[in-house]
Amino acid sequence: MIAPSGSSLLLGIGIGLASLAAVAASEYPVAGLAPDQRPANAPRLTADAPVDTTRSLHGIPAPRPAGLEFVEAQGGWYTPFDLRGMPGPYDLRGWHSQTRVGEKK
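Above: the chain sequence. Below: its structure as tokens.
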């Protein structure tokens, strides 16, 4: 019996994996075949959650700048404005301190 060479063995493995991938692809939906159409069973938002701006506007005293009006229209989208930033001298909004911004420690 003649042992297969390394390249023919790799070719055989490659063909086997390709055939498995073709079978697996036919069982699952493939994204991108109809990018202009939403899948029929995709979840849909039917109502907007109420906007709670207290966390996003933490540490910003009133009157608030007009540039922060977008926070109320943020809705359910991700925003970094309600996450803690860096501690220490960079903590301008008081996320890491026990006292409020503007109070004396």
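Helices lie at 6-27.
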